[in-house]
Amino acid sequence: MCTSLVLTTLQTYTGRNLDLEYDFGERVVITPRQFPLNFRSMPGLKTHQAIIGMARVAEGYPLYAEGVNEAGVYLAGLHFPGNAHYPQTWKGGAALAPWELIPYLLGSCETAAQAVEGIKRIPLLGVPFRPNMPLAPLHWHIADRRGAFVAEPMEEGVRVYSDPVGVLTNNPPFPFHLANLSQYRGLSAAQPDNTLNPALELPPFGQGMGAMGLPGDWSPASRYVRAAFCKANSVCSPDEAHSVSQFFHLLEAVAMPRGAVRTSGGRWDITRYSCCINADTGTYYYRTYRNCAVTAVALTEERRRGERLLEFPLEDSLRLAWQES
Questions:
Q1: Tell me: the pLDDT tens digits for 144-191?
Q2: Which of 2, 74, 198, 307 allows an S-S link to 78, with CB 3.0 to 4.6 Å?
Q3: Which helix (H) or strand (E) holds 302?
Q4: Would you tell me how many other CB atoms lie within 10 Å of the CB of residue 321?
Q5: How far apart, in Å, are the Cα atoms of 92 and each of 12, 16, 115?
Q6: HEC string for 203-257
Q7: Cα dihedral 166→125→132→290 (10° resolution)
Q8: DSSP-derived secondary structure letter, 270
Q9: d(CA 45, CA 67)
Q10: What is the largest CA-CA distance in the chain?
Q11: How far is CA 196 from the centre of its chain?
């Protein structure tokens, strides 16, 4: 369960809520240009675009949930159970495991369009990182300053869609979410007109009534509509501080508080972290469920040039600032 957004003010901001019922060892990870990226069924990348994002590092390999490269290309994997399909065998030639997709595409592509062509061209194989780490069923949000796309690996093959909304959640497949928006075309940030009976005196009794009917639950379809509405009506100053603050407020509108969503296994889905990435500068901002303060990690030129993974454990403790009267 996740929500991904793309927002453009003067610069392009990308990011997501990661909603999950358990910790997966996540931390901010920078993969510098000279760190060798190896792949199971195709040649590795000895040099490549530098990458920053949230990942688990397993056996020295960055398993990214999402990231941005130094060219400004964003790629995020979101839960897509029941629909995601990875073939178990192929006839030979180049292929990628799903967990190799983000490192490979962000390492080798300078535009989102190039990443889309890579997804279309290179088969995805159902090969886990190791036997005790089952494959996550995913679809992907892809974006840069020019536009956004969605890629969904289905049984009939990978389906790629242009994304005019700049939002992705989970099931059903992406075409449903676009079609479903038509049911909410009457929503507005403004107060509604009295179209029921203009002859009656029916004054609004509070602000926000133009959005009555906006779904408030945490299902993927409802989160998609809510995120699309909030993003479409977003207003903020275009500077960095206001843009980053606004991005986190948009994510708040679809975040999961503990206790609201219980899984079939009896655990609580929560928004483990929210992130906002300035795709133009590579600055990765995040906050966690337990710490709402925003922490930034910069993809500096020095960090891009290195040869070793750089790992930044999360600032995950609540910090309270007391002001004396």
A1: 999 999 999 999 999 999 999 999 999 999 999 999 999 999 999 898
A2: 2
A3: helix 301-304
A4: 5
A5: 38, 35, 21
A6: CCCCCCHHHCCCCCCCCHHHHHHHHHHHHHCCCCCCCHHHHHHHHHHHHHCCCCC
A7: -10
A8: E
A9: 17
A10: 73
A11: 40
Q: Is the pLDDT of residue 325 over 60?
A: no
131 DSSP assignment: T
Choosing from 2, 109, 275, 276, the catalytic residue is: 2
Round to whole Å and give the CA distance between 24 and 245: 26
The band of 323, judged by pLDDT with boundaries at 50, 70 and 90, is low
The structural domains of the chain, with segments of one domain joined by +, span 2-170+235-312
Residue 58 tokens read as 């397993």
Q: 67 and 14 in contact (C-beta within 8 Å)?
A: no
CA distance 179 to 221: 11
Report the alpha-carbon distance of residue 140 to residue 311 in Å, rounded: 24
CA dihedral 6→8→13→16, nearest 10 degrees, is: -20
Q: Which residues pair with 159 in a beta bridge?
A: 152
User: At the fourth CATH level, which superfamily is domain 2-170+235-312?
Assistant: Penicillin V Acylase; Chain A (3.60.60.10)
DSSP character string of 67-130: EEETT--EEEEEE-TTT----S--SSS--B-HHHHHHHHHHH-SSHHHHHHHHHHSPB----SS
Burial of 305 (0-12, 13-18, 19+ CB in 10 A): exposed
- Cα–Cα distance for residue pair 262/258, rounded to 1 Å: 9
Distance CA 170, CA 239 (A): 31
Q: Taking a C-beta distance cutoff of 8 angstroms, is the pair 10, 257 a contact?
A: no
How many angstroms separate the CA atoms of 209 and 29, rounded? 43
> Residue 30 — very low, low, confident or very high, per pLDDT cuts 50/70/90?
very high
Q: What is the DSSP letter of 317?
A: S
Give the whole-angstrom CA distance, residue 57 versus residue 208: 44
Residue 230 annotated in active site: no
